[in-house]
Write a structure and sequence with these properties.
There is one protein chain. This protein is mainly alpha-helical. The chain folds into two domains: 40 residues, no CATH class; 133 residues, Aspartate Aminotransferase, domain 1, CATH 3.90.1150.10. 46% of the residues lie in helices and 4% in strands. The chain has nine helices and two strands; from the N terminus they run H-H-H-H-E-H-H-H-E-H-H. Strands 1-2 form a two-stranded antiparallel ribbon. Helix 4 crosses helix 8 and helix 5 packs across helix 8. The chain starts with 6 loop residues before the first helix and ends with a helix. The C terminus is likely disordered.
């Protein structure tokens, strides 16, 4: 879903969601238009009525679930502060956060793969959000990366680790994740040793 206060952008997005067409079949059926034009290379991003109905119901829960996520993030931040050399991004958010993800920055001398493996062995799923765009195969093969002009993006991209975060997490789950992360960080070999350099 995309929202905007700019009418010209809303119109363009409306075209792009439906093959770049200026009017939809429903518009023509209701007599709002006789024909259509294709003004851009668009896609078929129209959602079904069933998905729209589910989305409307879910919107009623957004504020409560975001508040729940916010409480969980606060618990994470409090507990993670005790793990040496671990970075916790977005501690001072601008605006009202949605608390979509719980990223941490691992110490720069540790191998992320080792930490993730240890966490998995402890029963905790972790993920990586978000890799720098210029490291994805499609962009590399198109000649757009990796770029030496964004070294900080690459540094952060190599260190970021996403911890579990969902509205029904309980304090014991946060504690389990944090204990596993603490143990994994303490046990991980420095990157130079692990790489044989």
């Amino acid at each position: 879903m995309v929202t905007t206060r700019r009418p010209e952008l809303a119109q363009k997005l409306g075209w792009l969601r439906s093959h770049g067409m200026t009017t939809l079949t429903l518009d023509r059926h209701k007599g709002h238009a006789f024909g259509y034009d294709v003004v851009a290379l668009g896609y078929n991003y129209r959602m079904s009525e069933l998905n729209a109905a589910l989305g409307l119901v879910q919107l009623a829960h957004v504020r409560r679930r975001n508040a729940q996520r916010g409480d969980i993030v606060a618990s994470y931040r409090e507990r993670l502060a005790g793990i040496p050399r671990l970075g916790i991004p977005f501690a001072l958010p601008r605006g009202e956060p949605a608390y979509h993800l719980m990223p941490v920055l691992l110490p720069d001398d540790l191998r992320r793969h080792d930490v993730m493996t240890a966490m998995r062995e402890a029963g905790v799923q972790t993920s990586i959000h978000y890799r720098p765009v210029d490291t994805f195969t499609a962009y590399v093969e198109a000649g757009f990366g990796p770029s030496a002009q964004v070294p900080l993006s690459h540094e952060i991209g190599n260190r970021v680790l996403t911890l579990p975060l969902y509205p029904s997490m309980e304090p014991r789950h946060v504690e389990l994740v944090c204990r596993a992360l603490d143990a994994a960080v303490r046990a991980a070999q420095p990157a130079a040793v692990a790489d044989g350099t």
